[in-house]
Structure formats: structure tokens, C-alpha cells
Amino acid sequence: MSIEKIELIDGIKKFRQEVKTSFHMPGHKNKPNILDEIGNNLHDYDITETLGTDNLHFPTGMIKNTLESISKSYGAKKSYIVVNGTSCGVISSIMACTSPGDFILVQRDCHKSVYNAVILGGLKVEYLYPEFNREHGLNFSVSLEKLEQMLIDYPKIKLVVLTYPTFYGVCFDIKKAAEIVHKYDKILMIDEAHGSHLNFCSKLPPAAERSGADIVAQSTHKTLPALTQSSVLHVCSDRVDVDKLSRMLRMLQTTSPSYILMASVQRAVEYMDKYGEERLSKNIEMFRIKTKELRDLGVNVLTDEFLKENGCHAFDETRAVISLNDVGITGKELETILREKYKIQMEMSDLMYAVGYITAADDPEDIERLFDSVKEIYLDAKNDDSQNSRVYIEEFPHLTQEISMKNAFYSDNELVTTEESVGRISSDFIIPYPPGIPLICPGEIIKEETIEYAKSILANNINVNGIENNKLRVVK
Ligand SMILES: Cc1ncc(COP(=O)(O)O)c(C=O)c1O
């Protein structure tokens, strides 16, 4: 795609013309019918905190009432609307459940917001590494046996932070995980950025907020039809200090929250309460038919059955995770072909997979269109003798934390070339984006294989934040 020098408004209009079917955020998929009254009257809805409205930081009126309805819908003790995305929800939750110097246990393939909380909160971190499956180039579920062992080995851990489902739709047994965490008297925080819809459809894996998690952060703009940036946070047990959480949110959120965003959360939750079960069920039905057709042809597309056969607990069947690696097409290439030839935009791609969101705003025909296009691309590539060779994804190399993340981040540092960085302590994050999972964290000693890994990602036109012009930041 050529990069033209156009500004935002023209750029957005151009994007709209180029994309016919969207499997990316926001979850309303730009279909006007769901948010219609809000979408069509933005100038009316854009009000602020004044006489007769409410205050997000100390809600007593319309915001409070909406939060109570959201809690009811999700079965939570208390809910918050977060207007700065789940990143803010995650950071506020972690900092509310800890004090500087505390240890937390973190699933290593978690989102960068978790790491940002470690720096901001002055925390110490232990990692639970997910089970990497080399054949499929994918992190499968975390092992609950390993989770328990970590809690035995590191009794100082105060909070456990797990991602459920992952960006790739993989789910562990959330009820069992909560039982284990509570057996050792720890707090369980679930980053459910990709799971705000689970609550609304009985065919999907259970929602964390109904399965024993103590605090849950969700991106309603990802898997619910709310506007971009709008998220929610649910407190589900007495293990969470809600007063401290409210104070953290007041510290980290704007004092001018958008009523448009907040209203969109109300509308999205109401929509899901009314239509979620029916619409998601129809989409899952089509998903099952089409993924079976593709798997019968030999295409590597993730399904619940396939993941269960491979030892995972469950799969979110609203996630299209497709690899044409076997016929020499990388995830990034698949994403590009879908966009340029079929006007379909996926959410993200890595070396092997292209990943798309399916939400209640989609219709079964959208899903059919996506998988039929993939089928066509696969068959064309299969019949083409000049196809590229298969790529392999390795597990992110495990690194040693030499100094604390916070000290490394605030240290005197310098920019060096990637070659010179080997053996040095990183002062910044190196993050392939998307999905936003750090390859290197501040304070870790950089290995040659990590740099090779980053270069292989860059060579496939996938962004790696933290490396610019072959340079990265290390501690002096
Ligand atoms: C697992 C996970 N957690 C948190 C976030 C942050 O969510 P938001 O973009 O709403 O800030 C993301 C974003 O992609 C994510 O993938």
C-alpha cells in the first residue's frame, strides 16, 4: 500500500472506501444501526461534567445508574467505565491490588499495559510462561500445574495477572485457576480485554467475572459494539479494595471523560443483553461450518475441537485465527491479500497467523465471505509451484532480569545498534505490535537470539516498537 501524505479526515474517508468488511476493532464494525442514535447525533451527545450531568470520578446520578446496570448485566459487585481503554483498566487494577515493592505473578505473554503497571507501581515480577507449541507457532494455555508450583515457590506473590482469552482466542480453565489462586490466598486479576462478549453467549467459554476472578478488565470497544477507547472494569469479590481502585482510576483517567464514549458502553451492553445470545450463536454456527470446511481442505484455522485435541481447555469461537503458512503465505501476507484483493481487513497478523474479531455486529454472511476468500487464496497458492517456503516461529527466548524494570527504565541510557546491544541491559521495551507482547523488557539482558528474532519479524514488515533505524536503548 502506498503511503500518501494525507491528513486524518481524508485518510479516514479513504480507509472507508478501501475496506468493505471489517474483522478488526471497534466491535460495532462501523455498522450504523447499533449505535445509531448516538452515532447520528454526536454533537448532541458530546456534553461534559456540569449541572445536571454527573462526575465519572464521583458518580451520583446518570453515570452511577448506568454503572449499576452494567454490574447487573455482568454479575459483578461493582463496575467502572474506563474511557482510556483497557490499558488504563489494567494499570489501575494492578496498582490498586499492590503497593510498591510487592511481587506479582504475570503471564509472560501479557499485554504491555501489565508491564507498564510494574514500572509505575514499582513492582517486582515473576513470570508464568505459556505453553508454546512450535508446530503451530502459538502460545497455548498456561499450565495450571505450573501456576500452582509458582505460588508454592514464590509465597511473596500478592497478585496473579492472567490473560483470558488470549489475542488468539485461547482459554484456560478459569474456574480452576481461580480456585488455585485463592487456595494460596492471592488475588486473581484477569485481563479480559478480548472477552467482554463471553458473558452474553452460552456457546462460548465462561466469563471470568462469573468464574471466580477477583477483578476483570474488558475492552468493550473490541468485542462489544462500543466506541474505541471505551472499556469496563468489574470488581467481583471482597479481595479488592474498591476505595483504592477508585482512587487509582481518578489518578489515571482524564477529568473530562467523553459522554459519547460512556453512552456507547451503555448502548453496547443493552444491545448485548437483548441480542447477544442470538446474534453470536448464529455467527458461531457459521464459524463452525466454514472452519470445518477449511480444516477438511487442510487449512490451519483454529477451532475449539482442534485446540482441545492439543491440550487447551477451550477456544473463543468468535476469533478467526488463520494460517496459510503450509502453502508459503505468512500471516502478514494473508492480511495484505485479504485487504487488497477482497477489501477485508483483519485485526492483526504475525509471521504465521492472520487474526480477526467476529462480534455481534457481524452477520453470518460476513463470516462466510472471510472464510470463502481464505479458501480461494489457499487453493490458488496450493496450485502455484513458485510458492515460498514455510516460516517457523520460535518461542520468545527467555531472558534474565538483571535489574528492576523501574530502575532500568529510569536509568541513564544510550542508543546502540542491535548488534552492539547483545549482552547489555535493555532500558526500554522491545514489542512486536500488534499484538503488543514484549519480546524484551527493561532490566533484561539482551540475547543474540532475541535480536535475530526481532529482525525476522521486522523483515516481514511487522512493527517492532523500541527498535528504530536498527537502534535500541540500553542502560549505560
Ligand atoms: C490482552 C490485552 N490487554 C489489554 C489491551 C489494552 O486494551 P486497550 O487497547 O483497550 O487499551 C490489549 C490491547 O490490544 C490486549 O490485547
Structure, briefly:
The protein is α/β, with parallel strands linked by helices and 476 residues long.
Q: Helix/strand/pairing class, anyone? A: alpha/beta
The domain tally reads: 3
Radius of gyration: 22 Å
Tally of individual helices: 17
CATH superfamily of the largest domain: Type I PLP-dependent aspartate aminotransferase-like (Major domain)
Name the overall outline: globular
List the main descriptive attributes of the protein structure presented here:
39% helix; 7-stranded mixed beta sheet; single chain; Molybdopterin biosynthesis moea protein, domain 2; alpha/beta; binds pyridoxal-5'-phosphate; Aspartate Aminotransferase, domain 2; Aspartate Aminotransferase, domain 1
Description:
It is a single chain. This protein is α/β, with parallel strands linked by helices and 476 residues long. The chain folds into three domains: 16-30 and 277-382, Alpha-Beta Complex (Aspartate Aminotransferase, domain 1); 36-268, Aspartate Aminotransferase, domain 2; 405-475, Alpha-Beta Complex (Molybdopterin biosynthesis moea protein, domain 2), CATH 3.90.105. Helices cover 39% and strands 17% of the residues. The chain is built from 17 helices and 21 strands. It has helices at 8-18, 36-39, 42-45, 62-74, 85-96, 112-120, 144-153, 174-183, 220-223, 242-252, 259-297, 304-309, 331-342, 364-382, 405-409, 418-421, 448-459, and strands at residues 21-23, 78-82, 103-107, 124-128, 132-133, 138-139, 157-163, 170-171, 187-191, 215-218, 231-235, 300-301, 314-315, 319-323, 344-346, 348-349, 354-357, 413-417, 431-433, 463-465, 471-475. It has a seven-stranded mixed sheet with strand order 2-11-10-9-7-3-4, with helices on both faces. Strands 12-14-17-16 form a four-stranded antiparallel sheet. Strands 1-15 form a two-stranded parallel sheet. Helix 5 crosses helix 6, helix 11 crosses helix 14 (364-382) and helix 13 (331-342) crosses helix 14. The chain is globular and about 70 Å long. The mean pLDDT is 95. Bound molecules: pyridoxal-5'-phosphate. Pyridoxal-5'-phosphate binds at residues 85-87, 90, 111, 113, 163, 167, 191, 193-194, 219, 231, 435-436.
